[in-house]
Specification:
heterodimer; A: 148 residues; alpha+beta; Tetrahydropterin Synthase, Chain A; 5-stranded mixed beta sheet; 4 helices; elongated; B: 141 residues; 28% helix; binds zinc ion
Chain lengths: 148, 141
Amino acid sequence: MNRPLKLSLTRRYHFAASHRLHSPAFSPEENLRLYGKCSNPYGHGHNYVVDVTIGGPVDAETGMVANLGELDPFVEREVVEAFDHKFLNEEVAEFRSAVPTTENVCREIFRRLKHFPSARLERVRIEETSKNSFEFTGESAGVEQRKP
Amino acid sequence: MIRVTRKLEFSAAHYYHNPNFSAEENRRIFGKCNNPHGHGHNYVLEVTVAGDPDPATGMVLDLKELKDILQREVSDRMDHRHLNYEVPELAGKIPTCENIAAVIWRLLEPKITTGKLDRVRLYESPDLFADCTADSNGSGT
Ligand SMILES: [Zn+2]
């Protein structure tokens, strides 16, 4: 008897954007201590890599969890067009009130893609650089955050 | 528990076509993958086996053995083949990343007797991969 299998599809997207890590809740010294050179008032940028994972049953007729013909234009519209070659702090409304750390960018992208109509969004993973990556699956860790 | 992953590359041709769909539907649903002349990819397969290391050998499984299993079950079947015509396990299925990963899982699972097959990840390109795992909730395919 064959065990049931679970399939997911992960598609990689790219955008380049600038940001500045700075919170009005902190003093200039605290911002500098907390965010270091990322708080430079002129901002800086990254080539972001976004891995979008879609899960769910494989459609017997198409052999697909999600049709890239639907997923690509959806992600393009919801994320790439909105984020690519933008200054995230000013040009993405959600980051007027939240610091555009890649943690927050990850959550915001998840929020935007959650409504993908044809299959279930499982995970958003972002590489801010080849050395830093962030993942969000929609869950909270449920642990108390340490104060900065 | 330790997870051990072995990588393998193979090149194969395929195209997407469902005889239940009209020619127009096939083009709309499968786009350029519907081209009847086929096209190909350099697939990259990552097979993960989970288990506790044997106290005597310090290994979850003999990687040489895994390499041989992958050669027999995957490379010999799929490398430099046309997936629509030459791989009986894929007959009647659209050879998508998802379906190929699931077929590879079914081929490998009974052969891996030391440790347990944990994940099959198949890259069709650096920008696209499918993951196949056992569905612990039993709600999958
Ligand atoms: Zn293809």
